[in-house]
């Protein structure tokens, strides 16, 4: 045991060191990452996440009072940090639709124990926000960008995306020091797979990292079929024929992407292969929805309501105990158990991705 002076300085929320061993779940996986969805609304209608037919102009999204306040979000984040979380990702819907996000970022960045504070966005509002986000204390951004082909991009954003705005958003984030920027590309067979080499070409040598994501059966309404999935190993082969690649190790345990670098030094790309090479074994992620439901898997079919205890006087110890008991019982490994039949027939009613962020 260290001397008391040093331990107190290092430990968030002044807790004895023994309480800061990361809480591990029923499969021995520590809680390290918390994804916080700020709102369920989005300015895109990506068919694989929020198809227009379901989420049309009359659709009722969460009202302000149904969403957690910043104070409530900070309380959950602080409790999660006490249990081992060191990485926080802000997501949505589209988090940049929240005009006051800068003040929340400042407060999260100030929480002792936050080592990595990131944000996932579709990039449409990034150009005007990047400086403010960096100034508030954000460490880095991930931008979802499925194609550089204008028509393909447009259709994959539900007819609402403006490619030039997203590309200038990426430039602004680079200038604001929020890089290296991760570029997330959901790959769908016959939709955008024929445009991937152009996108990779564009980002080669930029220092930004393209991650190719296998199309997943998230939620219940994206019409997922196994025959729309392009296995990462096929992509790896196709890309390797154009630009030789070599594997590189993980940055940290629980990292979702399998990393490769171009042999010619033009940078790094990644593959997120939840369908063909599941990575539940070291999944350390919890997800908080905008209305305060905590989910322990992207494909969860139920969550735990934290808003109720937050608004009914639960103190920090009680909140921490609730979170701890959720994680200790966690045994999710949906992607390892997934079968095309299970997924295609939507046997399980799963939480929608837009409610918890990818
Ligand atoms: S399927 Fe669930 S448990 Fe597995 S990696 Fe994804 S979020 Fe984690």
Walkthrough of the structure:
Helix content is 30%, strand content 16%. The longest helix has 13 residues, at 70-82. It is globular and about 60 Å long. It is built from 12 helices and 12 strands. It has a single domain, classed as TIM Barrel, CATH 3.20.20. Strands 7-8-9-6-5-4-3-2-1-10-11-12 form a 12-stranded mixed sheet. With 358 residues, the protein is an alpha/beta fold. The chain binds iron/sulfur cluster. The site of iron/sulfur cluster has 12 residues, from helix 11. Iron/sulfur cluster (SF4) is lined by residues 274, 279-280, 283, 285, 297-299, 332-335.
Which terms would index this structure?
30% helix; disordered N terminus; alpha/beta; 358 residues; TIM Barrel; globular; twelve-stranded mixed β-sheet; single chain; 12 helices; binds iron/sulfur cluster
Secondary structure layout:
Layout: H1 4-10, E1 33-37, H2 70-82, E2 87-91, H3 101-109, E3 116-121, H4 126-136, E4 140-144, H5 150-156, H6 163-175, E5 182-187, H7 196-203, E6 209-214, H8 232-242, E7 245-248, E8 258-262, E9 268-272, E10 285-288, E11 293-295, E12 304-305, H9 307-311, H10 316-328, H11 334-337, H12 340-344
Parallel strand pairs: 1-2, 1-10, 2-3, 3-4, 4-5, 5-6, 6-9
Antiparallel strand pairs: 7-8, 8-9, 10-11, 11-12
Helix pairs in contact: 2-10, 3-4, 4-6
The chain binds iron/sulfur cluster.
Iron/sulfur cluster is lined by residues 274, 279-280, 283, 285, 297-299, 332-335.
């Amino acid at each position: 045991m260290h001397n008391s002076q040093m331990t107190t300085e290092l430990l968030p929320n002044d807790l004895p060191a023994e309480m800061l061993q990361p809480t591990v779940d029923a499969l021995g996986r520590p809680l390290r990452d918390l994804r916080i969805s700020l709102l369920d609304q989005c300015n895109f209608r990506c068919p694989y996440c929020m198809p227009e037919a379901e989420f049309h102009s009359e659709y009722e999204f969460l009202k302000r009072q149904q969403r957690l306040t910043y104070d409530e979000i900070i309380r959950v984040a602080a409790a999660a940090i006490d249990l081992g979380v060191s990485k926080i990702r802000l997501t949505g819907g589209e988090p940049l639709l929240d005009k006051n996000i800068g003040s929340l970022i400042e407060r999260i960045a100030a929480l002792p124990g936050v080592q990595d504070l990131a944000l996932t966005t579709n990039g449409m509002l990034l150009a005007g926000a990047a400086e403010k986000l960096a100034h508030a204390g954000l460490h880095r951004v991930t931008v979802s960008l499925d194609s550089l082909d204008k028509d393909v991009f447009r259709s994959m954003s539900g007819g609402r995306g403006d490619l030039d705005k997203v590309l200038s958003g990426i430039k602004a984030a680079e200038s604001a020091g929020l890089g290296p920027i991760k570029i997330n590309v959901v790959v769908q067979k016959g939709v955008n797979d024929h445009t991937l080499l152009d996108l990779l070409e564009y980002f080669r040598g930029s220092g930004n990292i393209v991650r190719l994501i296998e199309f997943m059966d998230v939620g219940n309404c994206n019409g997922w079929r196994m025959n729309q999935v392009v296995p990462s190993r096929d992509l790896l082969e196709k890309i390797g024929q154009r630009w030789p690649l070599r594997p590189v190790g993980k940055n940290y345990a629980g990292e979702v992407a399998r990393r490769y670098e171009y042999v010619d030094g033009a940078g790094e790309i990644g593959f997120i292969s939840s369908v063909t090479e599941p990575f539940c074994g070291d999944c350390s992620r919890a997800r908080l929805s905008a209305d305060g439901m905590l989910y322990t898997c992207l494909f969860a079919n139920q969550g735990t309501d934290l808003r109720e205890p937050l608004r009914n006087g639960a103190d920090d110890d009680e909140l921490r105990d609730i979170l701890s008991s959720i994680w200790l019982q966690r045994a999710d490994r949906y992607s390892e158990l997934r079968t095309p039949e299970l997924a295609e027939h939507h046997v399980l009613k799963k939480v929608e991705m837009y409610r918890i962020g990818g």
